[in-house]
Sequence to fold (695 residues):
Amino acid sequence: MNFVMPDLYPASAEIFILLMACVVLLADLFAGKGRRWLAYLLAQLTLVGCFVITVLTRDGQNVTTFSNMFVSDMLADFLKLVLYPAVAVMLVYSREYLAARKLDRGEFYVLVLFATLGMMVMISANHFLSVYLGLELLALSLYALVAIDRDSARATEAAMKYFVLGAMASGLLLYGMSMVYGAVGSLDLFEVGQRVATGGGDRAVLVFGLVFIVSGLAFKLGVVPFHMWIPDVYHGAPTAVTLFIGSAPKLAAFAITLRMLVIGLNGLAEHWQTMLMFLAALSIALGNLAAIAQTNIKRMLAYSAISHMGFMLLGLLSGLTGPEGMLDQTFAALNAYSSAMFYAIAYVLMSLGAFGMVLLLSRAGFEAENIEDFKGLNKRSPWFAAMMMILMFSMAGVPFFVGFFAKFAVLQAVVAAGHVWLAVFAVLFSLIGAFYYLRVVKVMYFDAPTDMAPLEAPPDMRILLSLNGIAVALLGLLPGGVFDYAIFATYGFIAGY
Amino acid sequence: MDFKTALFYIFSAILVIAALRVITARNPVHAVLFLVLAFFNASGIWFLLQAEFLAIALIVVYVGAVMVLFLFVIMMLDINLERLRQGFWNNLWLGGPIAVLMAVEMAAVLSTRSFGLEAMPAPTPATGSNAKALGAAIYTDYVYPFELASIVLLVALIAAVVLNLRQRRDHKQQHPARQIAVKRKDSVRIVSMPAEKE
Fold:
């Protein structure tokens, strides 16, 4: 028996963040109560370090290591380079909020770093086991983060619901994976893909496993009919944690969906494309309709998240497959997958901004949770009212903000795949959905403020939130650069197999 | 029927009866003990398959650790059995048919050829040391998921401490360092008083 030392170089960023999470844990222990900023600073430096390491170690090649369980390809590099800034921005936004509620303990930053590690593992997963363990690492950190405000009964209830439903979703996913393993005898996504495409394994068992895998993924993405936890968790969790759950993990969930379905189970594409079609249509319909009835902005954004995830699935299901279940490398398939990726990135950007605005209006002892709390924001701060307007317009898909372009790209892919009725359906429900986004804008500009307290936010958050809003506006006008990167990443990902 | 087959049927029969008693026993402590019995018999079946490492791990981990913890939890919680049974007959009209439906569905799936005995033949029993083979696989090919699992456990540990460690204000503590450092002037005050005549 000979043991070959795995090549650690492609996983440098993961190793670095793991070491730094342990350093933050110890440093905070010895720093004491007076030096809470140390954990925050170290966490931010870790994310900067990860960014630098990923930039330095990427080479545009598909490199696998750890017996093919870990892959570093262009898709992984690109998504990780979006992931680090998303987490860093979330830390900046939530700092003041956490400090005001005495939640800014070092463990918060440690858990965020571990969750980030879990997402990186998911993004680079090339094996069912790494998908599952990355997912669990992320989920476990998130359960603890939701419950971190122990004295809040609502947060504890949300954490309990999240934990129970999350455990069930993990069970479904594992059950599906074991079925696939039973049918083809491998857990390596690439090998599973090969064997399924060449007709290996019993079809009935494979489809049975696929149903469970898609249900588990739908739970994690939060699409109808597996969406019940989303509004309660978004509402119950401290807003800073809601901001975290609602942003970066969507990228990781997108990555595992793409890798498991497109690489591992591409031979069954005709089955999962139909399943995703139902999930997407139901999510877009129910998400947009239920959001209208909400008075709480966190719940409203939760239902909007459900409809946005439905839209992202539209892109994923529109990739055509070639004959014999082989991967299709035509421009249409590339376009479909990269439109879904662009949608996920655009959604993360908008979600960060929208929850950032909720955090901006909150202060010690006051949660700006209701849509009414945005009343007359224009009188209190015209600049931030404009930012919120940009974010809401973008989420609604008003031209020419990034949300419009993302929807447009996805719909183009849907039409190219021949599902014209699905595109019409999605557009109709987006129009209905525009109502509740525009209501926030109306409240900000045409209602009299009930609360004239000045906004208390540190300058770094103000600057970053402004940049966030401007990015949403600018990316809508000039989406080319990011979209090209998304196409390159998808191409590198598909061509590598 | 050779000796091994006979053993298999004995283990399986006790396993099924014990599992049934887990859900029918009135007293939760009895249910836990029946679960322990079920685990022992399952581990016996694993022994017959020559999977000795898994068999011992099942006893050590589940019987030795998890079930003992379960027993403690049951003894500490004051469970009102009457309230647990409330509403059984009221909900039976909905629960009963669903249970029957699920059982029929499972039977329908398992009786198809894809899941039948021909499609899934019995595994050949392992030869050689299980523990050695598992160790070799875990520390070489599967070192990445193994390390990830250890990180998941670390996060679980941190999360448990974060959610449960409370510093109570009304807590009385001794500080030995401060007790040693005590000075005479902290505890005794010498007051000079003028002498007084009675």
